[in-house]
Design a protein that fits this description.
The complex is a heterodimer of chains A (261) and B (316).
Chain A lengths: L4 E10 L2 E11 L4 E5 L6 H8 L7 E6 L2 E2 L5 H6 L2 E3 L12 H7 L2 H4 L3 H5 L3 H20 L15 H14 L4 E5 L7 H16 L3 E5 L3 H7 L2 E6 L2 E6 L1 H6 L1 H8 L4 H6 L1
Helix pairs in contact in A: 3-6, 3-7, 6-7
Chain B lengths: L2 H15 L8 H25 L8 H17 L4 H23 L4 H21 L1 H4 L5 E2 L5 H7 L6 H24 L2 H11 L1 H6 L4 H27 L1 E2 L6 H14 L4 H18 L6 H15 L4 H13 L1
Antiparallel strand pairs in B: 1-2
Helix pairs in contact in B: 1-8, 2-8, 2-11, 2-12, 2-13, 3-4, 3-5, 3-11, 4-11, 9-11, 12-13
Classes of the chains: A alpha/beta (261), B mainly alpha (316).
Chain lengths: 261, 316
């Protein structure tokens, strides 16, 4: 199996401070790799470098063998990388359906003139995108909320809407930044199933999540960050027993809790 | 019925029905001024309301559109109608060239940069007297369309003709703007307005789309300048002046920058209010400023959205 996402020696410096230093790992198709670590470990910074929001000071990001280090997010999206955000980035004034349709931008866009004059070609493209967006919303149980303003949804529902929007791109690599944050147990389980389903379809998934039960349950591989550096990686069972991880991430007293999780 | 149909219907009714209430021919003149301003403001809705970008220099494009109608017929032998289209093309090209570097700026930086663009155009129009005849202005040839109508038996006075012609152009402009709203490009513009970073992650080329909105709104402004020049048969550099740029933004924001109909109401109020307030003579400007301040304090979303919200509230 060829590696879809390959991160090597990635690092970034903010005003002399190394926020992330020399982080390497790879994600294969159908694999779920989780990045864990205490608050401030550099997980979101790492995500922002991979998705082109920050330009790394060193190292490289390869997407399906191609070096895409420092590419703009919109170009990465066109190469099949999509993501969600820890602190929601929803198109607030648009409806739930329009948010999902926006995810189909690359599929539905066409000549500007067709848009200005509402030519039949544009209407056909928009209709297809809308039908697919509705199907996607059903999949994340938001079908009934399609016509609502996005800003009227609950936090958990918005999290699902972001996942739907990211899936609309039909990505090959999907970055999920705390998809279950603020969700109750039932919602978390739903997101669980959804992620597993997406991975099963061959998408390479990189996950940042604080819900350790979820991480242990669905990850194939875990990368542990602390103070911006990779301190451990491996299968969930191995990582959860690693003394360095327990001390850095879970705290010295959490060993029992962690092994039960 | 969709918002698009309702908006177009209301605009068409206003254009057709208003003359029945006009006490004199003078009102056709005011009406067509409203439509000309409404056209420019519709462009501002695309730029400010859809894309979330600001420009304090769009009167510069109105100036280009207006002077194209004055100069191209004389120097290039173009029909004034074609001159208006040439003006729109020049405005679009200038907006494209200037927009590429300038639209990377955000918020007040963008405001100041576009302000500079507008001032630059009005300075050129005022100072290059060998071409533009300077601050005193220049005459504009007749469009000739009214004579054509007369030949086929439709007899309209000059102000009547310009009233209906401007109204028609406004309705077409509104139709295009409403088409854009509900299209992939419109969705992408509104998306980048909502969250630029999220827009980029779904593959939207943010720089390109902002540029498209800037160019389209410049063409609207240019055509409105052309219409003004053609109906006045005269144009001065004031059309490109700073005050006109501010007026465009104020009309859009006052009426409700998110909607085409709201912007039209903004244009209506700011075009008619000064005429109404003339009875207060020297206090006119003070009252105008006061009305605008009160509107923004109590109806921040703009007049039309605020009124609609209040009406909806009463129904419950």
């Amino acid at each position: 199996m060829t590696t879809l996402l390959e991160v090597s020696g990635l690092g970034i410096t903010f005003g002399g401070l190394k926020a992330v230093n020399d982080v390497s790992f790879r994600v294969n198709p159908g694999e779920i790799v989780s990045v864990i670590g205490p608050n401030g470990a550099g997980k979101t910074t790492l995500f922002n470098m991979i998705s082109g929001v920050y330009i790394p000071s060193e190292g490289s990001v390869k997407l399906d063998g191609q070096d895409v280090t420092g590419w703009d997010p919109f170009l990465l999206a066109r190469r099949g990388l999509s993501r969600t955000f820890q602190n929601l980035q929803i198109f607030q004034t648009m409806t739930v359906l329009e948010n999902a349709v926006a995810g189909f931008h690359l599929q539905e866009k066409g000549p500007l003139l067709a848009d200005l004059l509402h030519l039949p070609s544009m209407k056909a493209r928009a209709r297809t995108a809308e039908a697919e967006a509705r199907a996607l919303l059903d999949r994340v149980r938001l079908g009934n909320a399609a016509e609502k303003e996005a800003s009227s949804l609950s936090y958990g529902a918005l999290k699902r809407l972001e996942i739907a929007r990211a899936l609309a791109l039909k990505p090959r690599v999907l970055l999920l930044d705390e998809p279950a944050a603020g969700c109750n147990a039932v919602e978390t389980e739903e997101i669980d199933h959804l992620i597993a389903e997406v991975a099963a379809s061959g998408v390479a998934i990189l996950l940042v999540e604080h819900d350790m039960k979820m991480v242990m349950r669905i990850s194939n591989h875990i990368v542990v960050l602390d103070h911006g550096e990779k301190i451990a990686e491996g299968e969930p069972a191995v990582v959860s027993r690693d003394p360095k991880v327990i001390e850095a991430y879970l705290g010295p007293d959490s060993q029992v809790e962690a092994t039960h999780a | 019925m969709t918002t698009k149909r309702v908006t177009l219907l209301i605009l068409a009714i206003i254009v057709i029905a208003s003359p029945f209430f006009f006490p004199s021919n003078y009102y056709y003149r005011v009406g067509s001024l409203i439509f000309v301003n409404g056209l420019a403001v519709t462009g501002m809705v695309i730029l400010i309301g859809y894309a979330g970008q600001i420009s304090l220099g769009h009167a510069g494009f109105a100036g280009i559109g207006g002077y194209a109608c004055a100069l191209a017929p004389v120097h290039l032998g173009l029909h004034p109608g074609l001159a208006a289209i040439l003006g729109a093309a020049i405005s679009g090209a200038l907006a494209w060239a200037v927009g590429r570097p300038v639209l990377r700026l955000k918020g007040y930086y963008l405001a100041v940069a576009t302000l500079g663009l507008g001032i630059l155009v009005s300075m050129v129009l005022a100072n290059e007297a060998w071409l533009t005849r300077g601050p005193d202005g220049i005459e504009v040839p007749d469009l000739g369309l009214n004579d054509l109508l007369e030949a086929v038996g439709i007899d309209l006075s000059n102000s009547q003709f310009w009233y209906f012609f401007s109204g028609l152009v406004l309705v077409i402009g509104a139709w295009v703007a409403l088409n854009l709203y509900d299209s992939p490009t419109g969705r992408a513009l509104r998306a980048l307005h909502g969250s630029e970073i999220a827009a980029r992650t779904v593959g939207i080329d943010v720089a390109r789309l902002k540029l498209q909105a800037f160019v389209i709104s410049a063409i609207y402004a240019s055509l409105s300048g052309s219409l003004l020049a053609l109906q006045n048969k005269f144009i001065t550099p004031d059309v490109a002046g700073f005050m006109h740029s501010i007026e465009m933004v104020t009309m859009a924001v006052l009426g409700g920058v998110g909607s085409v109909l709201g912007a039209f109401f903004g244009a209506t109020i700011l075009t008619t209010l000064p005429q109404v307030l003339t009875v207060f003579q020297e206090y006119e400007q003070i009252l105008l400023g006061l009305v605008m301040m009160l509107c923004m304090i109590f109806m921040r979303e703009g007049l039309l959205p605020s009124i609609l919200r209040a009406l909806r509230g009463k129904d419950k």
